[in-house]
Structures are given as structure tokens and as C-alpha cells.
Write a structure and sequence with these properties.
five-stranded antiparallel beta sheet, 442 residues, alpha+beta, 15 helices, 24% strand, 34% helix
Length: 442
């Protein structure tokens, strides 16, 4: 009923994102329990002259979800609507957290093909901002979408796929919240499989010299370089016939919780208080992780707990530029007074056909830089951003960057296609905010 959405409205409190760098004070919050209630909330906001933004779990470092109008919370839009085993798809409500989806799919003997290393986000939030993992052949979370349902600015419910409304489908899989409010997503899934993860320390010189071979020889390859050192940690994930051999309870806790979260949290705190200690801490940290191999179902291999809060910037560049760009970042750190406590992460993705995907139309490498929350990050990120833009870099839509519509129109050959679709679906800019004005223009 239409009145249900109204009773679910309430005066909003201040909203903050996960990293704490973005706050917003909406006029009201709405928690719809159905697509119909969400559509009614959108129509009412338009009548009241208020902007509308859905918010997930706040894992974006940008203000993509910030609004001073109506904040849509998808807490009640969760769960699996339908599993179609013949088609190899699952349809889920937009507010479903990835971690719940992964567990539910595993119970059904199913899995996504690829995923990022954090699974706290909602499915709509993750896909709308371009969340990705690493893969030679398998692409981002949004590239696994087969159909999408969203409420548009006039309050109507629109479904799109390759066969129906294909122009909307090409853009809305990664829509930045600019085209409408996503209510449900249909993902391609496959029978659950096993991955064998091989984690191994390796020198920076060896990783960069062998990068193309490591990428070509592994289904999923990524590595972390520890600034102020010549050391990296590599991870190779490949499909396995089994049997499952997960990390031991104690050894897994030591690697994933004690070292990667507990001791790392302490090291970051010390580094923030005494920056001069960071290079020494980095040398110790880069030697603390040892080689290990384990085999498990995908989400238990791809994803990791991330309890240390940080700020992050990530750029997508042509894969062939990855080694040169990373060497430039290393030279930058070595010649500057910067003290960098977080490893630099390098991943890859194949080209895809999504209008504003960071991998749209080109094989891609991702270089991500982080700093512990509360540490001044602007000088480091600005210097790295200068390197990435010189290589034709595209910033991750949900991570810190300073790019605007003028730059992005040159970085994305189909940028005009997206903005023209936005003009058609949201001519009054009901879903606009300051971030979208900067990156898409007005």
C-alpha cells in the first residue's frame, strides 16, 4: 500500500560512510519493503522537490550516496527472489549484502564466478560503483549481471537486459545511482567450484619482470607491494579438482586476523603517531607473511576480513602500462618524504562492454593506494593520481579521486552515451548530488 512507505519515513540523522570521511544530513530516510514502496517514495520526493539517493553499507570513499534530500535505505529489500538453474541465474533484492548472497548461494551449490576481496557491500552498491576482484578471463561483479530492475525518476519500474531495453542495460549495470534506484539484480551463477590459493612472498623486481607471465598463467593473480621495501606478497587463485583443504583454524586465524588485522592495526597506529618508524615497520610486515597454499569454495578464497579502516584511491590503467606505472609509484615514494604504511595493491580485469566500467573496452590493471584512516593522505594520493592520469587512468567510482566530467569524457569513449541516457531517464536530475555533478556534469 502507498501509505506503508510513508509510515516507514522518518526524520533522518547524520549519515556517515565506512571510512568516516563523508557525512550527509538528509531531510528524511525511507526504508521501503518492496519495489512498489520504493517507487512511491521516489514519486513523493519528486512532489516535495527533494533529491533521492539510495545508500548501501557506505563502503564508498566518495560522496556518491550523499544527499540532503531523501535517503533510501535498502535494509528490507534483501534476499533471493528466484534461482533459475536452467538459465544459470539468481535474482536478488538490491539491498542484499554480498556476504549473505555468497553464503546463500553456497548452500544451493552455486557461486558467482569472480568477486572482490570485501563482501560487506550490498549488491546494488557494489555493482553501481564498479566493485571488482582480479581475473584473467572473468570480470567485475557488474559484468556478471544478466538483468536489472530499477525505479526511474517518474516512479516507474523498468527492467532491462541484453534483450529488453539494451541501451539502459549497457549503462545501468554500473550506473552510479544516476539513472534510477536499483531494486533487483539478476546475476549469472555457476555450480560451486573449488579454488586453490597459493600465497607467496616475492621480490618487487621479480614480480614486475614476470608480471605478464604471472597474469597469463593464472586465472586470478594479484600482488601487494610494501612501500619502503623491495618486497611483495603474491596470490594466485586457480580452479582445482580438490579435495577441499581450507587453512587450519589456528594458522588461518594467525594470518587473516592476528597479522592482517590485529598486529597490522597496531603497526598502523604506531606509524601514524611516529611516521619515521614506518619504513622499519614495513620491512618487518613484509617479512611476517609466509607462503601458504589452501583450497576452498570461491568466497572463502576471494574474500578477506578488513577490520583496519583506511582511505583508498584506485586507478584503472591499460594493463600494458601497469609495470611502468608501479615503478613510477615506487620511485615517487623513495625520493619523497612520504611515509606509506599500507601496501599497494595490483589486480587485473579483462575488457568488458559496460559503458562506464573502468575496464570498458580495454584489458585493465588496477593500482590501489591506501593510507590508515586519520593519516593525511592528500599529498600521496595527488602524486599517485598524477602518475595514473598520465597513463590514461580511470578512477574507481567509489574511491577517492579529483577527476571531473571534462577529464572523464576523454577517458571513456562512451561517456556521451551514458549522459544522453541520463538526460532521457532523469531530465530533472532527481538522483543528482554534488559528486555526480562533478563526474558527469549537469
Amino acid at each position: 500500500m502507498a501509505t506503508t512507505s510513508r509510515t516507514a519515513s522518518r526524520t533522518a540523522s547524520t549519515w556517515r560512510n565506512w571510512a568516516g570521511n563523508v557525512t550527509a544530513r538528509p531531510v528524511r530516510e525511507v526504508t521501503p519493503a518492496s519495489a512498489e514502496e520504493l517507487a512511491e517514495a521516489v514519486r513523493r520526493a519528486a512532489e516535495d522537490g527533494l533529491k533521492v539517493k539510495p545508500v548501501g553499507t557506505g563502503h564508498s570513499f566518495t560522496a556518491a550516496a550523499a544527499t540532503d534530500g531523501v535517503l533510501i535505505r535498502p535494509d528490507l529489500l534483501t534476499g533471493i527472489r528466484k534461482i533459475d538453474r536452467a538459465a544459470g541465474t539468481v535474482t536478488v533484492e538490491a539491498g542484499t549484502p554480498l556476504k549473505r548472497l555468497n553464503v546463500a548461494l553456497a548452500r544451493e551449490g552455486l557461486s558467482l564466478t569472480n568477486m572482490g576481496d570485501i563482501m560487506e557491500q550490498t549488491v546494488a552498491g557494489a555493482t553501481s560503483t564498479g566493485t571488482h576482484g582480479t581475473g584473467r578471463d572473468s570480470a567485475s561483479t557488474a559484468a556478471q549481471i544478466r538483468a536489472l530492475e530499477l525505479v526511474t525518476a517518474d516512479g516507474s519500474l523498468l527492467t532491462c537486459s541484453e534483450k529488453g531495453n539494451p541501451d539502459v542495460f549497457a549503462a545501468a549495470r554500473l550506473g552510479l545511482g544516476a539513472l534510477g534506484v536499483v531494486t533487483a539484480i539478476t546475476f549469472a551463477v555457476e555450480p560451486v567450484f573449488l579454488l586453490t590459493a597459493r600465497e607467496e612472498p616475492m621480490t618487487f623486481d621479480r614480480v614486475t619482470a614476470d608480471f605478464e607471465a604471472l597474469h597469463a598463467e593464472n586465472e586470478h593473480f594479484e600482488f601487494y607491494w610494501f612501500p619502503h621495501t623491495g618486497n611483495c606478497n603474491t596470490k594466485r587463485n586457480n580452479r582445482s579438482a580438490g579435495p577441499a583443504a581450507p587453512p587450519g583454524r589456528v594458522s588461518g586465524w594467525i594470518e587473516d586476523e592476528l597479522l592482517s588485522n590485529g598486529i597490522f592495526q597496531v603497526a598502523c597506529s604506531v606509524g601514524r603517531a611516529v611516521p619515521a618508524a614506518i619504513p622499519s615497520i614495513a620491512k618487518l610486515s613484509s617479512r611476517a607473511l609466509s607462503a601458504r597454499t589452501y583450497t576452498d569454495i570461491p568466497y572463502k578464497v576471494f574474500t578477506s576480513p578488513r577490520r583496519v579502516r583506511f582511505m583508498e584511491m584506485e586507478y584503472a590503467i591499460p594493463r600494458e602500462a601497469a609495470v611502468e606505472a608501479l615503478r613510477e609509484v615506487k620511485a615517487l615514494v623513495e625520493r619523497s618524504p612520504l611515509r606509506v604504511s599500507f601496501p599497494v595493491e595490483v589486480r587485473t580485469a579483462p575488457a568488458d562492454d559496460i559503458t562506464l566500467s573502468t575496464a570498458s573496452g580495454r584489458d585493465t590493471a588496477y593500482i590501489a593506494v591506501h593510507l590508515y584512516r586519520g593519516t593525511p593522505y592528500q599529498s600521496y594520493f595527488t602524486a599517485v593520481e598524477r602518475i595514473m592520469t598520465a597513463h590514461g587512468g580511470r578512477p574507481h567510482w567509489g574511491k577517492v579521486h579529483t577527476r571531473d566530467a571534462e577529464y572523464l569524457a576523454g577517458a571513456y569513449p562512451r561517456f556521451g552515451e551514458f549522459t544522453a541516457l541520463r538526460d532521457r531517464l532523469d531530465p530533472q536530475r532527481l538522483f543528482a548530488n554534488d559528486y555526480l555533478r562533478r563526474v558527469l556534469g549537469d
